[in-house]
Amino acid sequence: MKTPHTLILIALLAIVLSACTPKPEQIAPYAQQTVDAWATSTPYPTYTALPTLTPIPTYTPQIIIQTKVVTPTSTPTPVYTATITLTPTNTATLTPTTDPLKRTKPSGFYLVNVYIAPGVWKSNGTGDKCYWEVTTATGDIINNHFGMAGGTMYIPASAFQVRMEPECGTWDWLQP
Predict the structure, then answer these.
(1) pLDDT tens across 65-75, in order?
(2) DSSP track, the chain
(3) What is the distance, to the nearest Å, from the Cα of residue 8 to the centroid of all Cα atoms in its chain?
(4) At a CB cut-off of 8 Å and minimum separation 6, what does 108 contact?
């Protein structure tokens, strides 16, 4: 049950609130001023196109190959080349070579026809994290591999560089 004081307070509050509410004819001039202000205001800025970017210049490396003329001494030394002999089980065997481009290679980076010969190379590693790649002069990958060691890699004569990781073991030249 409500007390008489509470009822009086509620009645007074209702009277005050109804007296504070504006009538529609009092609001109309202000509403029109607001509409006029919006109509004459500055519009939002428009965005222009973003500037275009110029392409990044590319760098083309120039390969300089220096040659050294060797004058033969009194007796020339024989040059041995590797040959492949196929056995009845179709496995290749290696014959040692003295050509420095075809010698067994450890992991590293090699320039083709400068430090490594093009052709087929075989890994003698046993790990499962072997990575190698053959690239062009611009860095595009011609061929690569990640996985088990012990496979072969073909280096075309048009390749620029070869990268071989340590997990592949050493590499032996098989054939051109």
Answers:
(1) 666 666 656 55
(2) ---HHHHHHHHHHHHHHHHHSPPHHHHHHHHHHHHHHHHHSPPPPPPPPPPPPPPPPP--PPP----------SSPPP------EE-TT--EE------GGGS-B-SEEEEBTTTB-SEEEEE----S-EEEEEE-TTS-EEEEEEE-SS-EEEE-TT--EEEE-GGG--EEEEE-
(3) 79
(4) 163, 164
Give tens-digit pLDDT for 98-157.
788 999 999 999 999 999 999 999 999 988 999 999 999 999 999 999 999 999 999 999
3-class SS at 40? Answer: helix
Contact 156, 120 (CB under 8 A): no
Q: Using one digit for the tens of pLDDT, what is the confidence trace for 19-48?
A: 666 677 766 676 666 666 665 655 666 666
